[in-house]
From TrEMBL:
Domain of life, per lineage: Bacteria
Pfam families the UniProt entry points to: Cyclophil_like2
Organism: Testudinibacter aquarius
Coiled coil (UniProt feature): none
UniProt name for this protein: Cyclophilin-like domain-containing protein
Domain Cyclophilin-like: residue ranges: 5-105
């Protein structure tokens, strides 16, 4: 499953896993939430609705630069431009297909389905 992620005027794509979390995310698209820097390694953006609980919401996931994730406790997307230690409640959704460096300066993110 592919999504289009627009960062400023640059268009990128990401490939998502096929799981209940990504299916719920796709139902909320398109989205254009404000993006906030968090921890110097990720951009976070809050969803209109939290994604439903699933077994993988309780696991520990260690994100890498380019990962698209969901942080279940806060109900936000977390798009990583750096790597960090495992975080409880962080759910892997997918990965940027190519360049993700524009995340560093993005203040607005637009996420759309690719049909």
């Amino acid at each position: 499953m592919k999504i289009k992620i627009t960062l400023g005027h640059q268009i990128h794509t990401a490939t998502l896993e096929d799981n209940p979390s990504t299916q719920a995310l796709l139902k909320q698209l398109p989205l254009s939430p404000p993006a906030e820097n968090y921890g110097g390694i990720e951009k976070i953006a809050y969803l209109p609705q939290k994604l439903p609980d699933s077994p993988n919401h309780n696991g520990n996931f260690a994100p890498n630069a380019g990962d698209v994730t969901y942080y279940a406790p806060w109900g936000n997307l977390a798009l990583f431009y750096g790597s960090t230690n495992p975080a409880n409640g962080l759910v892997y959704l997918g990965r940027f297909d190519g360049e993700f460096k524009p995340l560093v300066t993005a203040n607005q993110i637009t996420i759309e389905r690719i049909e």
